[in-house]
Structures are given as structure tokens and as C-alpha cells.
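In response to a reviewer's request, we include the raw inputs and outputs for one of the modeled complexes. The four entities were modeled together in a single run.
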Amino acid sequence: MYTIGQVSELFGLPISTLRYYDKEGLFPTIQRDSGIRKFGEKELEALRVIECLKKSGLEIKDIKQFMEWCVQGSETYPQRRKLFLHQKAAVEAEIERMNRVLDMLRFKCWYYEQAIRDGNEDRLSHLQPEKMPEDIRRAYEHAHSMDA
Amino acid sequence: MYTIGQVSELFGLPISTLRYYDKEGLFPTIQRDSGIRKFGEKELEALRVIECLKKSGLEIKDIKQFMEWCVQGSETYPQRRKLFLHQKAAVEAEIERMNRVLDMLRFKCWYYEQAIRDGNEDRLSHLQPEKMPEDIRRAYEHAHSMDA
DNA sequence: GCTTGACCTAAAGTCAGGTTTAGGTACTAT
DNA sequence: ATAGTACCTAAACCTGACTTTAGGTCAAGC
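The model returned the following C-alpha cells for the whole complex.
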């Protein structure tokens, strides 16, 4: 069992955030010892799931919903599975978008390297994709394709 | 040249957002025709960069800084390059974190599939990683490794 | 000539996700 | 016994990124 301060250290989260999560109902079955929260393995796993679901784009109130399903037992397995499937698809899509962003950034890094060498953007501003280096051209085209 | 309404359509952004961006200084050299904004190729590229930098985690005020560098000319190429290098590293790190999140979600999807089959979590709660399917075990271990 | 539609501004409002403040309890070391 | 430290609550506050509101200009079509 851990105190809130220990969990704060373990996860690198401010104590105020942990209390906020508790207030929002994210640890529905947390125990207390004369008022003081006792974080067990259940709450640590909850925190791992919270960080995961948060990064997958879920809001606190929806994470709360999930935690309530966990309390309700085996009848909510299908909902919980559906939620994870849904968030998995969302993260896969997000990673695709991030890769496109990455390609734009790669292109811009190359662009300014060239601009620094040239001292101006004259050559670059007329540059056709065909004349770019292979990898840069692919990054450029991926970043500028508007098909998603 | 495009009106604000046309750009809104093109980029799928609310008109209010475009006006907000302008107010925040994200189109420092936009032209106007008796008060009405005229978006040119420069502003469209600015918008692409805005979306890119926003997703890379930059705040509006830092994007404004970048746009100001663009107005200042060739002397700011090094700053601009440095910014893109920095954001590239940030996005690479973010994608790594997202892949870890994805592995957690993969594991949870598998977990609830099993729980639905079993009707309870008894077997799962004692399951050692060694006894999981290869791919799930790898996802589980990647997701639970606390080394970043 | 008057309504409709697309544009404009300044200022106030909204929302999520925390953080800070103010005030209190309880154990421990000096 | 008193100072320090770790915990507690309720409620106010904060931030970024928009969005909404209220009121106005201007050209086109009926």
C-alpha cells in the first residue's frame, strides 16, 4: 500500500492531480485509513489505464465511466472491450496523422538547411518535387496529400 | 485569392477559428480589400504549417513567433530550422509514447476477449506473461516497461 | 427600398483539466 | 510544547484555444 505522496513520486504526477482524479471518481473503490488514501495495486493499475486512456483522447468523465464498469463486474466486459477497441482505432489513426506531421517537419528541416546554404529561398521557391532528394520528396508529398 | 469562407471550406476549420488565428497574429502579412481578408497561397501554406506545428505540441504564441521570423527574412533561417528540428524530435518522442499506449490497448483488447470467453477474470488475474501469446506478451511488456 | 448573405469587430463566454489557496488534522523530532 | 512534515477538504482560480454574442458594413437580388 502506498500513500498519495509515494504514488506521486512513482508516477511523476502532482499530488493535486491524484486528488483531482479521485474527486472525479477515477478510484471508485480506494480505501482510506482515518481519512488518508491508501493506494493499492488496483489503483496503480487504474493509474496506468488512466494515462493510457487519456493519451488515447478520452475525457475524464469517460474514464470514470470505465472505472464504474470495472466495479460492476463481468456483465460489463463487452462494454469495456468495445471501449478499448474503439480507442485502439483512434490511436492508430492518430499515429498516422502524427507520421504525416513528422514528414512535414522533416521536409521543413531540409528546406531550411537548403535556405541557409543558399542564403535565400529563391531556388527553393521554384523547386519542383521531382528535383528534391528521393526521401524528402516522399516526405513532402505525404505531408501535403490532403486525402485524410 | 480566397475569402475566409472559402478557406474555411478548404481546411474544414470554422470561420471563427480563422479570425482568431488572424487576431493572434498568425497571418502577419495578410492583405485586405476594404476590410475583407484576402487569403493567398502564403496564407494557405501558413495554415498547413499552423496545423503541423499545433499537432507537434506548439502553442499559438510560439507559432506567432515563427510567423514573425518568416517576415523578418533570411537572417532568421537558423531559428526557424532549430524550431523544426526541435518539434521533429518532440513528435518522434510522442509517436514512441503513442506506440506504447497502442500496445497497452492491444493488450487490454485481448484481455477482455479472454475475460468474455472465461466469464470471469480468475485465470487472467494469475496469468504470468510467459503464458501469454507471443505478440500479446510483447505488447504487455512494452506497455508496462517504465523506462521512459 | 428592403431583405439576404457574406463579411467585419470587440468583448464576453465556455470548457477541460488541472492548480492554488485557505484552513485544518495528526504524527514526529528537537 | 512547538516546529516541521505529510496528509485532508472545499472552493476559488488559471490557462489555452476557441466560440458566441451583439452590433455593424456592404453588395446583390426581388
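As requested, we also summarize the result in words. Chain A has a mean pLDDT of 96. The two ends of chain A are 47 Å apart (CA to CA).
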